[in-house]
Amino acid sequence: MSHRTNKSSTLPISIRADLAASILGISTATFWRWYKARPDMPRAFKPSLRCTVWDRDELIAWRDTQRTIKTSRSEEDANG
Fold first, then answer.
1. Which CATH number fits domain 14-79: 2.60.40, 3.10.620, 2.30.30, 1.10.1660?
2. Predicted model pTM
3. Which of 10, 15, 30, 76 could form a disulfide with 19 if both were Cys (CB 3.0 to 4.6 A apart)?
4. Which long-range contacts (CB under 8 A, 24 or more apart) does 48-57 make?
């Protein structure tokens, strides 16, 4: 399987569900559940009928935002 790659990174620019799940630290099945249930997740695009991919940088930015939200909530809970 070939991917478009960026010289500054070893990860492909467009990634499929299995690699996207790995970046998020979840299973592929959980990734698909989240994708269908969470409207805040980055949207996929289909370069062909049977291929669905996500933009790597959008997915990483979304992941990092989720960490920030989780940290903020934890701090609020600790402060009461």
1. 1.10.1660
2. 0.71
3. 15
4. 51/16, 52/16, 52/17, 53/14, 53/15, 53/16, 54/14, 54/15, 54/16, 54/17, 54/20, 55/13, 55/14, 55/15, 56/9, 56/11, 56/12, 56/13, 56/14, 56/15, 56/23, 57/13
